[in-house]
Amino acid sequence: xxxxxxxxxxxxxxxxxxxxxxxxxxxxxxxxxxxxxxxxxxxxxxxxxxxxxxxxxxxxxxxxxxxxxxxxxxxxxxxxxxxxxxxxxxxxxxxxxxxxxxxxxxxxxxxxxxxxxxxxxxxxxxxxxxxxxxxxxxxxxxxxxxxxxxxxxxxxxxxxxxxxxxxxxxxxxxxxxxxxxxxxxxxxxxxxxxxxxxxxxxxxxxxxx
Length: 209
Ligand code: PMT
What we know:
CATH topology: Rossmann fold
Oligomer: single chain
Distance between the termini: 18 Å
Low-confidence stretches: none
Strand content: 25-35%
CATH class: Alpha Beta
Order of helices and strands: EEEHEEHEEEHEHEHEEEEH
Bound molecules: ligand PMT
Structural class: alpha/beta
Mean pLDDT: 97
Shape: globular
Largest sheet: 8 strands, mixed
Helix content: 25-40%
Strand order of the largest sheet: 5-4-1-6-9-10-12-13
């Protein structure tokens, strides 16, 4: 089985030295990549900028912006049996990236932002028969309701719902998996390594001992 995994944040540049990003460490996505390797999968990891060493044996594609991640993911997904998007992709980017460092002027300033591509929604539209699409939903409130909405809107098979306070940057995570057919599987608070293994076991079945 060939599996594509995304991890980490994206960076949306304002000028050559400033960018908009988020607190994703990449740990969840890298743990899923490690767990997939241990199941014998061929693993492609599309990663935003993080301070982690990728597991040995995965093919790594490094990106910075949401646009670069979209390009790499859409290209690679075409040959993958499953895609797990643990990356925290920016929803907005500056309309213009300034060529020169922005100078300070008196008074306030307004930054104009535009929507980035919703990569998972694009994958949901171009999904191959039999391909399994898995998203994560990072929520501060209405966890299950928001996650279910994303599962349906993006045409996913599974979504791993986690609270921002449980998942972002931490070594542990607490995830509730929602399946397309209505299955709800609540996983315990565990290390991201264990959570990643349990996510793959729930979706693809247990590996024979
Ligand atoms: O990196 P860590 O510190 O280990 O933290 C892990 C995590 C909290 C980042 C991870 O578990 C997680 O929840 N990742 C998804 C974060 C997120 O962006 O959630 P969302 O609810 O905004 O997006 C829903 C899904 O759509 C995600 O699978 C996301 O990758 C995808 N998406 C979002 C925006 C966009 N423009 N394109 C996308 O494909």
